[in-house]
Amino acid sequence: MKKVKIIAGISWAFLCLIMIIILFPGLNSFSVSVSKLPFMKLNPKYSGGEIAKQMITASCTLDIRKPVFNGFFKERNSGFVQLDWHGTIPETIKDSIDYDNDGNKDFCVLIDRKDSKTVLSPFNKKVKGVIISTPTSYGWAVRVGLDKN
Amino acid sequence: MDNVLEKTGMKKSFGKSLLYTLPMFLITFMFMTGGKPNFSDPASALAVLTVFLLVNVLYFFMHYTGKTDRYRAVLFIIFALSLSYTLIHNMLEVRKSMSFSQADILECKIPFCHLVIPMMILPAVFTKSIIFPGSIIGGFANISSMVVLWLIATIVLGRGFCSWGCFYGGWDDGFSRIRKKPVIKKISELWRWMPFAVLIMVALTSALALMPTYCSWICPFKAVTEFEQVTSVESATKAGIFLSLFGGLVIALPVMTRKRTQCSFLCPMGAVNTLANKITPFTVKIDKNSCNECFKCVEVCPLYALTPADIKAGKVSLFCSKCGKCVDACPKKAINYGIRGIPAGTMKNFSRNLFLFVSFLFMAIFSAGSIISTFHGLLKLIF
Questions:
Q1: Which residue ranges make up each domain of chain B?
Q2: Structure confidence at residue B76 as a pLDDT band (50, 70, 90)
Q3: Do B341 and A5 touch (CB under 8 A)?
Q4: Which of B132, B149, B281 sits opposite A13 (nearest CB)?
Q5: Helix B194-209 × helix B268-276 angle, to 10°
Q6: CB B106 to CB A9 under 8 A?
Q7: Neighboring chain B residues of A14 at a CB cutoff of 8 Å
Q8: What is the dihedral of CA B331, B332, B337, B343, to 10 degrees?
């Protein structure tokens, strides 16, 4: 039994040695494999959620993402909807948004990029206010706070 | 030229030490140069050469002198400093600031570090998603690569990761070496369970908030990496907490106690790695037959991993990070690196050589990128 334990211990140690030796050359392929695991995707709280629809104009595109209410156990009562403008964005952005696809505009967002000023005009009582409005590498992004009910 | 081989020590002759260094020399050469040294940029070539020599000289001296901790600590501390330098330099170059903006968070460009891992497990299981604004794959410090690196290193080294792989540990390790004698000598060993409390607290709060709460509110190393832009009372409070914890747990207490207090009392990853000590093949063993219970090892252990009761029982606790300080300090050479299954006091040289090769190789390759980049940056500043 003592010999078996020694052999098992040494074998495990050598296996660890091999793991460390192949870890760095194989890091890229191991990482790609790990990235494909079902849970390896960013929570919508960080990614902003899936793109629900796009509004395309001659110079820029507005991505309206799905509203995010997710919580650990169940959906929360408060969340946000993220809007991303890409392309050549005008100095002043003014867009009316129907985030819940009910055919009615829920809010209007007016952004003065020069002064970094964002004005939100809600038409729906579920729309709470601007959480984030910021220039990004691709254009401009806004998160608007929402109530679920 | 030859070193005298001590009867009970781990010293080797000059030639034997060179021979033991040869595999490290070849592997680190391959990793640092890709097998083809590039001399087109002299500063870059000099940086690679310096780091390559540094790593191999340190490893050689571990064998030649039979001492582990002092040479490990040199690379470990340089790693911590260089990683902070690289990160801050990168932040200043790309973002002109040490803080990250709301746009960086929205675009998920925050570098990922292993300390987030304990907080992302519950949400990954229950929401099938990662609660961190970083890149899953590709880009600097992406989530997948860091998870792979940490996972393998922790399986192999257990809590040894905290002394051979963690790029933050070098900070309090360095500060704990400043004074020769501690000012505060007695701290209850019960405090070493504190990281488990922190782990449970941050794992639960992170799951409930879907936000890595340790990184957002507690992590002392935000002070030397990057943190949220101070734009509100909340962000100012966070910055205050980061700086206070860094000043207290990473600088002041390590200087006064000669212990790694942040790693011992706060780090939640330390708690996870402590549990991983159950599976790693590498351990530290006490030879009861040689031990005279002088408790020198208890005195020098930087992580409160050894208590007089542990020594009397002939067992090193799970908190051990295998830094080698106790091994170096033991006057009777009764405490040594070991391999699970091998009885204490036997195959000491074999166990130490194998452990040193595995752990040092990991640290050398893992740290090389940031140390080379730091040396390169410094050379460019000088010339």
A1: 1-97+347-383, 100-280, 282-339
A2: very high
A3: yes
A4: B281
A5: 110
A6: no
A7: 354
A8: -170
d(CA B223, CA B242): 6
Query: How far A107 CA lies from chain B's nearest CA (Å)?
Result: 21
- pLDDT above 70 covers a percentage of chain B that reads 98
If one compares B345 and B175, the residue with the highest pLDDT of the two is B175
Which positions of chain A have pLDDT values less than 70?
none
- Paired tokens of B52: 């390559």
Question: What ipTM goes with this model?
Answer: 0.91
> In chain A, what are the domain boundaries?
2-35, 44-147
The answer to whether B202 touches B213, Cβ cutoff 8 Å, is yes
Residues A44, A70 contacting (CB under 8 angstroms): yes
pLDDT of residue B107 exceeding 70? yes
- Burial of B232-270, coded b for 16+ CB within 10 Å and e otherwise, reads eeeeeebbebbeebbeebbbebbbbbbbbbbbbbbbbbb
Domain covering B282-339, topology: Alpha-Beta Plaits (3.30.70)
Comparing CA positions, the residue from B262, B213, B225 lying closest to residue B141 is: B225
Do residues B119 and B202 lie in contact, with contact meaning Cβ atoms separated by under 8 Å?
yes
Which DSSP state fits A99? T
Type of residue found at A27: L
Token pair in block for residue B307:
């208590």
Residue bearing tokens 């098992």 = A8
Residue A129's CB is within 10 A of a number of other CB atoms, namely 11
Full strand arrangement of the beta sheet holding A117-122: A92-97, A107-112, A117-122
Taking CB atoms and an 8 Å limit, are A20 and B362 in contact across chains? yes
Query: Taking CB atoms and an 8 Å limit, are A24 and B122 in contact across chains?
Result: no
Nearest to B144 among A40, A45, A73 (CB): A40
Hunting for tokens 């040490």 — which residue is that? B98
Are A31 and B151 in contact by the 8 Å Cβ rule? The answer is no
- Cβ contact, residue pair B131, A70, below 8 Å: no
User: Cα(B325)–Cα(B70) distance, rounded to whole angstroms?
Assistant: 8
Q: Which of B132, B155, B207 sits opposite A46 (nearest CB)?
A: B132
